[in-house]
Input
Amino acid sequence: MATSPMATSPTKRKYILLVEDRPDHCELLALNLEEYRLVRARNFAEGLRFATEKYFDLYILDNWLPDGTGIDLCQLIRKFDPHTPILFCSALADEPSIQNGMSAGAQAYLLKPIDFEELQLTVARLTNVAPDTALEARRAEIATIREELADQRFERNERIEKVRERSQKARERSGKAFGRCLTAKRKFLRLKAMQAYLTAGGTRGDFAREWLDEISPPRRSTPGPNEAKSILKPFQICRATLQ
Output
């Protein structure tokens, strides 16, 4: 048994933008298109705003609006929505108006007063997308999404790699800075130690031999580290470095 249009699931009902300034005409159209979701725009500006901000399956335009013409609105819609059907419902019945409407991008032009049976058939025809067209459009949509996601992954990986490189360079700079700091501390400690040694009556030669012996890694086992070696342990360096 065929399903009545009125039984259409609310989530699957087609959306129609109706640009009509007369409330009585809007009510009549709404009564005869109850299986669709109608969004009403009262003038040219409001119609253009709704068309750009929302998504519709059909546009129904009056050709005579308070602040513009339906033909101009049709041309503007076609600039950002080239395929959604457009239907004119207008009292302008002269041939030039009809031709201009169709040339602007409309698929049908109905004259007022509206034949509502013809309106229902026309709306059903215009909103019934051919399966092949819908499938092709879906494939194009999926291909575009995949391409965009691939581009985003590539850009994200590039950003991650740049962050890694910056982190590695920062670690290298930090290591070099730490090395310079440790070297400076060693030099300062050696200077202070030499001043104290010389003040106490020691000679520079003895100091150099004692200093190297104190801070160089031990060559043989000893009964236990003396106090000086324990203090200087963090500053141990090779003899070749000081020479």
